[in-house]
Amino acid sequence: MIRILHTSDWHLGRWLYNFRRDGEFAAFLDWLCGVIRERQIDYLLVAGDVFDTGTPSPVAQKMYYRFLAALAATGCRGAVITSGNHDSASFLAAPKELLNAMNIRVVSVAAAPENIAEEVVVLSNRDGKPELAICAVPFLKERDLRVMTPGESYEQRLQKMADGMCLHYQAVYEYARRFSVPVIAMGHLFAAGGQKTADDGVRDLAVGSLGVVDTASLDIGFDYVALGHLHIAQTVGGREYIRYSGSPLPVGFGEAKDVKQVVLVEIFDDGTPLNITPLPVPVFKKMYQIRGDLEAIAGRIEELRAFNEDIFVEVFYDDPAFCSGLNGKIDELVKGSRLQVCRVHNRNCENFQAEQISGEELEDVTVEDMFERCLEANRVEETQREQLRRLYRQVLQEIENDDAEE
Fold it and tell me: b/e map of 27-45 (b: 16 or more CB within 10 Å)?
């Protein structure tokens, strides 16, 4: 039996608004090492988006390399890492020769059709005989999949992308199957029908429906398909063996309630079907969204204070009544606690902007007109309005003076 651990979308170095999350990432990597050791994992697969940007911080790099160095001590026999759309292919590939010596294979650049073998990693058992073939397909850009033709229509472009993706996976599979061992595919892509959340940080791979991969392109004989890019753990097209592991940490508040996981895949050499077991990832730092008027927000904050632990909080003020100094009042409510308020949304102002601007030309509305509408929409008492107008004019004057100095 071969034990494989499928994970993806670490996004090392990512911030939550203005807050660093290095402690959470370090805790996850420590936990992952423990799982690999305890579950006696033979091979680790990381299907893209190792880092959140193509120029990761020194702290993020240090965590990554420290984890890879610790991997050997877990008993894991090797790892295969592919690039995602957030990664820099050249950055991931830079220490390739050094990592090869540690039996860690990085595939970050798409292979040309004549060099498709570059995307196939053949893993051998302790006797030196091939036991597993990994089709390590990195994030494929449009230029990797099609030849652009002047004057082509959107539909033609779409079809060329789909055909190119299908041909690429077919080619890499045909090469891998010649080793007569189980074949596993890796990919960083958006499979048709995949689920995502509003603030999960997933960048569209292409405009519109370009880059969306049909399940048929992946359902061609692979024993397992380890996908990355979508942050919600899920199967694809109802097929248990084609799945996203999802991100191990919630990238945004929209993912806070998701059960994060990595996937244990056990392959048997006697023809027994795959054994697929999702392993839940612990919550290293809680995230909560609070909604309501000021009284409801205050009550919920008091409940969260009682946990006496570090918690990320996002606040939505939904009361139609105007609240002067909302951010300052929220700061007072969390003062002395371990709550970290990442963002305060004043839905009242947001709704006002959407309603007032709709259907109007920007040049028809002055900044003074807009401020008056804001006062009216928020039902500001007349006794307060003159002072607010005076302060507003003062701000405008300061902006104009700054522009003049520039």
Answer: ebbeebbebbeebebbbbb
